[in-house]
Amino acid sequence: MIEFGDHRFLWEIYDDQNPVLVLRKGSQIGASTMEVLKTFHAARFWGINQIYTLPTVDDVAEFVKSKVNRILKVNPCIRQGVSSKDVDSVEQKQIGKAFLFFKGTYTEKEAIMLTSDRNIHDELDKSKPEVIRDYMSRIGFSKIRSQHYFSTPTIPDVGVDKLFAQSDQKYWRFNCPHCRYRQHMEWDKNLDRERKIYVCQKCRKEITSRQVCDLGEWEAKFPSESISGYWINQMMCPWRTAADLIKEESLAEDTQYFYNFVLGLPYLSADLRIPASLFLKNLTEINAASEGDNVMGADTGNENHVVIGNKKGIFWMGKLKDRPNRTRWQQMAELIQFYDIRTCVVDAMPWTEEALLLAKKFPYRVFVNFYKEDPKMLEVVRWNDDKEGEEKEFEEEVKVLTSRNRIIDDTISSLRRGEIKFDIEKDYPAFRLLIDHAQTMYSRTVTDKLGQEKREWESTTGEDHLWHALIYWHIALKKRNKYEPNR
Predict the structure, then answer these.
(1) Which of 173, 210, 366, 382 has the fewest CB atoms within 10 Å distance of its CB?
(2) How many Å apart are CA 201 and CA 194, to the nearest integer?
(3) How open is the CA angle 451-457-458, to the nearest 5 degrees?
(4) pTM above the 0.70 mark?
(5) Which phi and psi (to 5°) does residue 118 adopt?
């Protein structure tokens, strides 16, 4: 039986009143129960409104029925302040004059028309980031503006791991009972696999998870940071031995599961990323620039990233900055004229007006791309100028609608098949930057608002501009090959 003393590492977190709280954690360490108790306490004694989110509405229903309502029913002292009509309610609880709302994140409307003093985001890394951002507006008029984030992490520098990196980064530190060496538990440093025990990082004598729990205390790596952050892993839990975790590691479906759910650490395996070898193996010395029928792809922003080539290969890439005598858009126009670009696809966001002006300067040679799924899932790329029927405005005719995840998969497949060549030196800075930008991308599985799992591509840093320029170039090449396949 687990006693409250086994959760000693949670005591300080229960008492932590910092407005912004972050828990990067393994699974089954008591964090959700702790947050439920904290929310009821804050509602009853402080009278504040709170929003508690989970990834989907199905998650909300299961969580409230199995955990929240059960806590209320077996604890009369907590149930005492809850409105009788809300005891069994799933979406909200009224505690005195305060309200506690339970919401999902895979419907954009979830965040509308609610006001809050504190937002609690459970399973942050599985939640929809855009909706989490929307909930920020719900605390805009509060004097408290408190936010609690906790989750098992997924990959480095994303979600809860990114927030933890911005915090004071508290670790459960203890002195070895044998040599007094100060440390915190780390899987590779504190494990003796042969003996299946934990050991001190310095003297290598055995230490138990009970000693880790009883002797430890929270110690901040960056105490001056305003966000209060904690890393909790199952090596700190006295009910889990080293032998238990070694067995769980051997049974885990993959390394990422073990790192995320047991060690509370982010992990990104190689098979979820775009390898550099995809680009290096497609280097060629053919003179692609002499082929003609050139196409261009451009990702826009404060700098425009551009890729130029043809079916023989890509021979120019780089980024364009505004200059005193020429804007980056004027430089793009010059490239279109110099290389006689027959088809160009430009990112529509965030500079939609500028992209449309470029399209007007080069009518039916420049097209503006919007990422939008085909509701029938029949086409990856849809060209508005292909559609017959009523007359359309020019701005509508030059639109390209592309399925984001499917075109990324398609581009990767083309690289694997050797269909995209690079007539560029391997050490050319822009080529190396393209590889770097591609390697910020990773594949993850998310749950949509219907509760269905799907795979999507995200970037760890957002520095993926040349990669998207390559994708727009690939879209442009598809257009050129479709209508002039033999040239």
Answers:
(1) 210
(2) 16
(3) 105
(4) no
(5) -145, 135
